[in-house]
Amino acid sequence: MLKFKNVNIKVANTFKDRLIGLMFKKEIKFGLLFKNCKSIHTFFMLKEIDVVATDKKDNIIKTYKDVKPGRILIAPKNTKNIYELPKGTLK
Q1: DSSP the chain
Q2: Rounded-to-integer distance, Cα 70 and Cα 9, Å
Q3: CB neighbours (10 Å) of residue 17?
Q4: Which of 27, 59, 61, 83 has its CA 20 to 30 A from that of 53?
Q5: Is the Cβ–Cβ distance between 81 and 38 less than 8 Å?
């Protein structure tokens, strides 16, 4: 698992965690790891987020900064995991 400076990462491993993600959060103080995931949406999110797509060895494939609410992201072909992070994590 990647480590991001000053951000705790939780694994979204239950149906509820994967369904809700960071939606409806007024403050985002942690990141979420979605394993075996190639796309996300930011509908119902109240804040912008940073997103990282990684391969099966957790090498970064693509980063997305300041993703606004109401967007759909489809990560590149070799993506295995997606991290949703608080805005400003990626500088």
Answers
A1: ---BTTBEEEE--SHHHHHHTTTT-SS--EEEEEET--EEE-TT-SS-EEEEEE-TT--EEEEEEEEPTT-EEE--TT--EEEEEETTS--
A2: 23
A3: 13
A4: 27
A5: no
